[in-house]
Structure formats: structure tokens, C-alpha cells
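check this one:
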Amino acid sequence: MSPRLKSWPLGGRLVTRCCGLGPVKTAVVHPCDAVAIESAAEAADLGLIEPVLVGPELKIRAAAAAAGIDISRFLLISTPHSHASAERSIEMARDGQVQLLMKGSIHTDELMHAVLAAKTGLRTQRRVSHVYLMQTPAYPKPLLITDGAINIAPGLEDKRDIVQNAIDLAHVLGIDQPKVAILSAVETVTSRLPSTIHAAALCKMADRHQITGGLIDGPLAFDNAVNPAAAAEKGIVSSVAGDADVLVAPDLIAGNILAKQLTFLGGAEAAGLVLGARVPIILTSRADSERVHVVSCALAVLMAEKLGIIARRPTTSAHG
């Protein structure tokens, strides 16, 4: 086990669960800084991914030298600039040459613009969304938070897919019936706050099996979603309130602030993944540690197995 994972047991368990699945061919998009190179190399050392470094060769080699990483074992595909790096990586994913994408030092909006291109991207019928996996000392179990990175002001149908993507990831984590809290500022439905209308509609969509695999309630204020006493004080009778596994933010701003607040003030460990595209996309911030990148790789590998993109290798016994 990597020393960086010893202080995050959940991350270590996720990496262990990937045994027999990797290394998975992964296009690392524009890895032109030391953190991107170090993260890809550590994930490779742990047997999670087989990095394919896609970007300007001189910049990649300079980043590797700065990090003290020997990249001679990795395939390097040279491109002239970040836009070309994204296009080439996505082309490889479309052709099945790689099974995962991993964001390097490219800007998120540039990468996602290429991913979402109508004719050349990686769109599916499902809306693409980002999910944070977070574990904070103040909460007794992991939390999934969505969407704090991709969808700026999602509509109702967008939120249906955002919720379903998060439920699917919860299943990968072993949560068979995740409790999903649709967040707003209050726990009552009012036309003055459209997010409460969306929350109520999403709950009814779940009743009609338009969303499956989880228990959904909302609108719930943040305190009612994660604190049983706060929920009881408001008289909320719900199997979700006070015990949520998934927090669905009303928009990107709220989700992003919530996730970063938990990370920087709440001491949370975090990993991040984009779902809903043809392949899982490892999407983390350039400010994130290598540990965050590695655990995000493990999540992506496990999700790729669930989607049928990769399969677990059969084990053989000593007597086989």
C-alpha cells in the first residue's frame, strides 16, 4: 500500500478492490506539470492504470524531469497544444484504444468542451456530470456530492441524470440503496425557490421509476440532510434526512463551494470522477494531492468494470 493512502482507509480499500482489473489503458490528457506526471506514475505503480501520455513531448519530458520520474516505460503521443491533446485522447477513447481519460494540466472547460462535442466527443444518452467522493471526520460515512464541476445551472431532466449517475457510483462503492438528499435552502416546497420545485419533482420521478436504485428525498436543507437532530427538530420524517449518502446540489456554485468547504475547512479527503460519457473521466483539480488523483483512478477503474468497459481477470489456483 502506498504510504500516501495509509491515512485514508477508504481510499486504500478502493485501490485494493481494483486488484485483478488493472492496469487499465488511460489517456492522460496534457500532463505538462509535475503533479500530473507524478499522479499518473503512482497510479501505474499501484497497478491501476497504464498511462498513455498525450501532449507536447518537450513539455511532458520537462515536467517528468522536474518530478524526477522516468517516463520511458509509458507510451507518449506528442501533440502541438492542449486542444489537440484533448482531441487525440478522445479519439483514442472512441476507438477503444484507451478505456479511461485522466485530466492532466489542461483546463477543465477545454477538456469537457471536447468531450461534449456532438460529432467527435464521448456523449451518450445520459447527461455528463461530476461526482465528488468525500470522507470527512465530522460524518460517519462517505458522502457523494454532485454536481460541483460540470453543469452550471442544470434543468430538471439534467438533474435526473445527475442523480442517476451518483446512484450508479454509490452502487460501485457497495451502497446498495443509497440515500439521496436533494438540497435547497429550506425543506419546504415553494415557488419562490425553483430548486425546491425541482427537488419535489425528482422525488416523484423516483416514485415513477424514472430514477432507480436509491431512496430520494427533498427538498432538504444541508443540516437536515446530514444531521438527525436537525431533521428531528424540523419534524421531518424520512429515511434519508440526517443519514444521506448522496448530496445533490441545486447548481454548480453551491456544489463547488460545499465540496471545497468540506475539503479545506472540514478536513475531508476527496476524489472526483465524471460520469455519463462513454468512458469514466478522472477529473481533479490541479491543487489536489497525488492521493486524490490515485483514489480517483481507483474509482474510475471500478466504474469501468460496472459499465462493462473492462472485466476482472479470472484468478487461478495453485492446483489449477
The CA atoms of residues 305 and 311 lie 6 Å apart. The chain has a mean pLDDT of 93.
